[in-house]
Amino acid sequence: MSKGTHRKKYTASWKLPLLFCLLLLLIGIGGLYLKYNHQKKIETKVTSPLKVAGSTDKQTIEPKNTVSATIEQELMKKNFSGTVLVFQHGKISLNKAYGWQNQAKKIYNTVSTQYCIGSVQKGQTAYLIMQAVKADKLFLDEKLSDFYPQIPNSATISIKDMLNMSSGLRIDDKKITALNTTDPKEILAETVKQTTVAKNASYSYQPVNYVLLAGILEQVYQTNYQALFEKNIIKPMKLTETSFYAKENKKQALSYSVSPLGPLYSNTTTSSYADELGTGNVFMSAEDLYHYYQAFFNDHFLTTQNRAELWETYPGEKYAGGIYTMKDNMHSRGVKARFEAVADFSKDGQTGIILLSNVWTQKNGFNAFVQQLYSQVAAAS
């Protein structure tokens, strides 16, 4: 055997054990890294008092400025569960979700999670009425008697009176709830049957006005309210995270109340949502609600005159067309089945805050708190 051949064999026999050792070392380091990373994830889940959801979701927008960062901190102090969206000069500066969408299944809220918006939907019903007016299918001074003549005093009640909650219409909601039905026709029929009128008509917040407006829309368009909502709001405004309540819809959050043991889930019946025809059975993500308001201020959907007519209030009052005209801003709020939706925005629709929550944590909800947050957003804009 030559020296060259011996050297090659020796070199090969020396390299093999070294490569084997290096391989074992790399496997060991990889195992330690995976174990450490797994442990960190467990620690984060256990020690974090408030899960920040959607961190890998492309739609999540972290605080872009000081005011948005401050708002996030204040919400976390309140152990907020839901989604908050802040926009300034028509651009989103915060869109983030917190807490549980479904606690039992360990599913966290994301910015795509849909929450019941409650009475905020009244503003959307009002929008559909105004679109019908714009298309000359309906008139604001048209009388309720043209649609439901069997309702007392209907010949003196106008569409605008109903939009302003100044019609004098009243109803015992318990009688509608007792129906325990999800059929809109049955709900409308019983609503008409049970509706009465106060002796002196003045502003009074009565949801029956908007249930009947939903019924009027069905007569005008010869279709059901949900189909009309989908055709005239969801599709043209390109809303992809908006739907009507459906138990099987896994994109819709469950709602909770606070107890000494933590968030407590209590089931809400399907019929209870159905009772809210035109007034509170729609679910939306915060971003979809933002896009809805942006479209609302787009002249393609409603003109400046349309909006002015819709939001003209009853003398001395703030409510008209499903929204409140405050001194410096517009305000909308809905509460249903422990969900709470609050939106405050400037009168040109360019700056504001939207908060959608699925845990009822405070006696009076987030209403006043969101108004304070809006003041911070407006001051910084």
From TrEMBL:
Ranges of residues in domain Beta-lactamase-related: 71-316
GO molecular function: hydrolase activity
Superkingdom of origin organism: Bacteria
Key words, A-Z: Hydrolase, Membrane
Subcellular location per the Swiss-Prot or TrEMBL entry: Membrane
SUPFAM superfamilies: beta-lactamase/transpeptidase-like
Record-linked InterPro entries: AmpC-like (IPR050491), Beta-lactam-related (IPR001466), Beta-lactam/transpept-like (IPR012338)
Keyword Hydrolase in annotation: yes
PANTHER family: D-ALANYL-D-ALANINE-CARBOXYPEPTIDASE/ENDOPEPTIDASE AMPH, PENICILLIN-BINDING PROTEIN 4
Name by which UniProt lists this protein: Serine hydrolase
Species, as recorded: Enterococcus viikkiensis
